[in-house]
Structure formats: C-alpha cells, structure tokens
Write a structure and sequence with these properties.
26% of the residues lie in helices and 27% in strands. The protein contains ten helices and 20 strands. β15 and β16 form a beta hairpin. The N and C termini lie far apart (62 Å).
C-alpha cells in the first residue's frame, strides 16, 4: 500500500507531507489540525520539489514516542490523530500513516506558544486574522450577543462613580474580552505577571498624562510610577494604577488624572480574559476637555491595549505570544453631580466636553456618556486614528449631533 502511494509521486502540499522521522512531525500534525487536515507519512524521505523518494521506515517505538511528544507539547494536551502502523519490507521497520481530521481536532492546537497552520506545502505560524478565527472557533458555542455591542460602561460594570465629591469629572474606558480556547486547562495568570504587566504598562502609550496635562498647561506634572493595587490581587485578577497631577495638588485636585489597568480571567471553564483600561480626569472648574485632546488620548489608549497590554496579559494567561486583534469597546462617561446648589450647572457630558464646535445639537437632553464598538478591520490594519474617528462619530451622533463637524487632530 505504501509503495503504491509513493509511486504516485504526489508532492508535498496543503494536505500531504513526508517525514523521515524526528520531532518536527508534530509541527506538521498541529498545522494540519488547524487548517484542513492532512496525511503525513512518517518514515518516507523526499527529494527535489518535495517528491517522495525512499521508504526507510522507523522503529517500532516511534509511535509511542510521537504520541508522548504530542501529549507533552500540544495545548490542549492528550490529543493525537489516527496513527496506522504499516509494515515495510525491512524487518522491524514501520511507516506511520498519520491521518489528521480537522473536524475532530480540539482546535486550535497550540505549540510552543504559537498556532501552526498549513500554507502552500509549508508549516507557518498563523497570521493574526487566521488566529482570530481559530480562537473564536475554540470557544464552546457561538459568541454571546454582548460581544456585538458595548456593555461595559463605567456607570455600570463596575461603576467608578460613587456619588461623592471626589468622583472624577470624566472617565475614558477601553475594554476587551476574549474567550480562551476550549481545552485550556488553567484559569489563572502565571507567577510574575505583576512584574511583566508593570513593565508593559510603563513602556506603552497608555495614559494620556502628557496629553491631558499639556492641554491643561501643566508643564512639569508630578507622575507616580505604575504599581499594583494591593486590594485587587489574586491568581485570576490584578489591578495596576498610576497618577499624574499638578505638583501643587493631588490626583483628585484639578487638573489631575489617574490611570488604571485591570486584567482578570473570568468563568469556570471555558475561561475568558478581560482587560480594562480607565483614565479618570479631574478638570479645572469652568474648563472643558477639547475633542482633539479626547481623540488623542483615546488613540493612545487603544493602541497600547492592542499592541502591548492585551498581548502581554494573554501570554501570561495562556502562554500564547501571538494573538489576533480582539473586539474592543470604548466609553466616555461623565459623573452624576452631587452638588445641590441650583446655581451650579449639573454634571453631564456637555458640561465637561467642548462639544460646541461640533455643530448644531438637535436635542437639549443631558447625556452622561457614550459608547461604541471599534471596527475590527481598522484595528487589524493598525488604522488607529480611523478607528477612533469612527467611534467618536458614533458617540457624538448619539448625543444629538446629526451632522457633527470634527476638526481631527490625528490622521
């Protein structure tokens, strides 16, 4: 049977490969599982344009060795494809016919922190878009409808507003959540995640401290370094924070700001990773935040989340260093006023954001926040400004500006 197949001289391709032996076969098996399935002949050499050449066979212990190697290397573990032992003409030698069914594999199969796939007869690491589809596929059942609309507004989950005079005037939030693939056995972060995340935050674009305080004409703000919040530490959740303020005041003294990052693993299996970035702003009295400043702060926050912070959190949770672009929602929220003086204008978005330049507002209704989903195709292409512009357009239209007139600062 093996001789007949080899005589057909079928070259290696998307679903066929030959291996003389060795551990590299598991890369091909994982790639077949993550793509379209395939047939691997283990114990057959190839020459030239990846054409099968000689049937050399492998010893009888090769199957057990290969199965053990897969069990110890694959995530999820303890999976192996169908392996058929075929005798060769040489006594004591076998060819292993390995048939990989993509529909029966617990996809995605992760190997050495990456997701191998098959492309044009080669095994490569999955590009981001393919990784995204495989990771989403690995979730049990279809995505919940909450993934299709923003649901994590700062006034709700959980609220950062306590109805106190120390509440921030504005909160800028970006948040993402991604299911961990079926079969992932562990629902906790790796030891040392605090150190890894603090370094990632410090080196990222997150926190608009320079943007915000520069807009408030604070030339030399006093900045605290990123640190762990001791009240929010467990194997499944961590909170980090830093502040930036006028040297003569506190973070809650205008103008001041506090940035927070919360990472947490939710659920009891299958698990889900959530990363939330918040910027709390205390504005000087009678001074509003300009739309260009908000635009710039959002863009930095989103770029930091996608390129640095979320990948580091995912790697700590799963060991996977290459991940697809997740779904991201953004929120801008104003505090509910606790001031009872009737002469003082009540808190709302219109009080804290400079919206007068946007054109005619068709409604006089107060708005306490806005939300939008970021378009995945813009994030995948790293079109950060376009993604922010689209989100802000959605929010502003929801605030009653049917034809907003933006003067974008970023392009």
């Amino acid at each position: 049977m093996i001789e007949d197949f080899v005589s057909l001289q079928i070259p290696e391709g998307l679903t066929v490969e030959y291996k003389r032996g060795g551990d590299k076969a598991i890369d091909t098996i994982a790639a077949f599982a993550n793509t379209y399935g395939g047939l691997l002949l283990y114990g057959v050499t190839e020459v030239g344009n990846q054409i099968p050449d000689e049937i050399i066979g492998v010893d009888r212990k090769a199957k057990d060795s290969l199965v053990n190697k897969m069990s110890n290397s694959f995530d999820p573990p303890y999976w192996s494809p169908e392996i058929i032992e075929v005798e060769t003409k040489e006594v004591g030698k076998l060819v292993l016919v390995i048939r990989v069914s993509a529909s029966e594999a617990p996809r995605p199969i992760v190997l050495d922190g990456a997701i191998p796939v098959r492309l044009d007869g080669r095994t490569i690491k999955a590009p981001r878009q393919m990784m995204r589809s495989l990771l989403v596929e690995g979730e049990v059942g279809s995505m919940n409808s909450s993934y299709l609309k923003p649901t994590h507004h700062p006034h709700h989950r959980p609220s950062v507003f306590k109805q106190q005079t120390t509440d921030p005037d504005l909160v800028i939030r970006t948040i993402t959540h991604q299911p961990l693939w079926r079969g992932h056995p562990q629902g906790r972060f790796a030891p040392g995640t605090d150190t890894v995340m603090i370094e990632a935050l410090a080196n990222s674009l997150f926190t608009g401290k320079t943007v915000y305080l520069a807009a408030q004409e604070v030339e030399k703000p006093q900045v605290t370094e990123w640190q762990v919040d001791p009240t929010y530490v467990s194997s499944r959740s961590l909170k980090f924070w830093c502040t930036s303020r006028n040297p003569s005041g506190s973070s809650e003294t205008p103008p001041g700001m506090r940035a927070e990052c919360i990472i947490q693993i939710q659920g009891e299996g299958p698990f889900e990773l959530e990363v939330c970035l918040d910027q709390y702003l205390w504005l000087p009295r009678e001074k509003k935040l300009g739309i260009p400043t908000l635009e710039h702060m959002l863009m930095r926050e989103i770029q930091a989340l996608i390129t640095t912070i979320f990948p580091k959190a995912m790697e700590s949770a799963t060991g996977v260093s290459q991940i697809p672009v997740p779904l991201v929602e953004v929120h801008v929220a104003a505090r509910h006023d606790v001031i009872h003086d009737p002469e003082v204008e009540k808190a709302c978005i219109e009080r804290f954001l400079e919206v007068s330049s946007l054109g005619v507002q068709a409604t006089h209704e107060r708005h306490y926040g806005g939300s939008a989903m970021l378009l995945p195709e813009l994030l995948q292409d790293e079109k950060w400004a376009d993604a922010v512009h689209d989100a802000l357009t959605t929010m502003v239209m929801d605030w009653g500006f049917p034809s907003p007139q933006f003067q974008w600062a970023c392009s």
